[in-house]
Design brief:
alpha/beta, globular, two-stranded antiparallel ribbon, about 270 residues
Length: about 270
């Protein structure tokens, strides 16, 4: 797929991108700012039609961008990077909005809708907070609410754009552990954009590295998160160590002494 926003004379934001997101796996998009990650999420969701090429679901009747909103909502659910959350809405009310996307905004809520919303609440661990207003939630709880809203749609594909943005360390781990569990246990096909390469190393099954709208490397984290590849992609010298606990790649950018980082981590084991 390729895409440009402002006609044939504007630069390509996506340039010949092709990827497959499989069920039961977490696929991560990484790359410098402006590399096309958010645009690719939007094209993959069908909310944005690519200038060239299409996003397909393997067994779907049409390209996603040409489906009706209700049909598309049955295939793909999106957790955007920034979403307005009315502070007076409760957790349960917000999650139930996901069912409206799938059934249409004018249709009455059914027992199946209520059951799907309840399952989503349980899946994200927020059943005990169902009546709490969104304005009284932590950042991690708000993000889990958005994921619950997406799950309530009942779609098999879950797209997340920077789901850990603005979260502290504990809530980052909570959110990505939830996403990892949804893929592994629930069979969801997950595509997410992340900036933190060390979280990618820990939670992703497959990684696609975007630079200037092109995929320059892809594969399991250990194959993509390499010193030569990352230094060229990000324009900064990096060292890649082995995490002493998880045995995953540990990316250390220039300016931090890799020996100090490794020693500090070893001391905390």
């Amino acid at each position: 797929m390729s895409h440009r926003y402002n006609g044939a004379d504007s630069p390509l934001v996506l340039d010949g991108v092709s990827l497959r997101v499989g069920p039961g796996k977490v696929t991560a998009l990484v790359g410098p700012n402006g590399s096309g990650k958010t645009t690719l999420i939007r094209v993959a969701s069908g909310l944005l039609e690519a200038s060239h090429g299409v996003a397909f679901v393997a067994s779907g009747p049409l390209p996603l961008s040409r489906m009706s909103p209700e049909t598309r909502a049955g295939w793909v659910a999106v957790v955007p990077q920034a979403a307005y959350l009315p502070p007076d809405f409760t957790v349960e009310e917000t999650v139930r909005l996901g069912r409206m996307a799938a059934r249409g905004w004018l249709a009455a809520e059914s027992e199946a809708d209520r059951k799907a919303s309840e399952i989503a609440l349980q899946a994200v661990g927020l059943a005990t907070l169902r009546g709490r207003p969104l304005g009284r939630l932590s950042g991690g709880e708000q993000q889990r609410t958005l994921i619950g809203r997406a799950l309530a749609q009942g779609a098999p594909i879950l797209l997340l754009d920077e789901p850990t943005a603005h979260l502290d360390l504990r809530h980052q781990l909570e959110v990505l552990s939830l996403v990892r569990s949804l893929a592994a246990s629930g069979g969801y096909a997950v595509l997410l954009a992340l900036h933190d390469l060390n979280l990618v190393a820990r939670f992703a099954d497959e990684v696609f590295l975007l630079v200037s709208g092109r995929i320059v490397a892809s594969g399991p984290p250990a194959a993509v998160l390499r010193e030569d590849i990352l230094t060229a992609a990000y324009g900064v010298q990096v060292k890649v160590l082995e995490h002493p606990v998880h045995r995953t790649p540990l990316v250390v950018p220039d300016g931090a002494d890799p020996a100090d980082v490794a020693g500090d981590l070893a001391g905390r084991r």
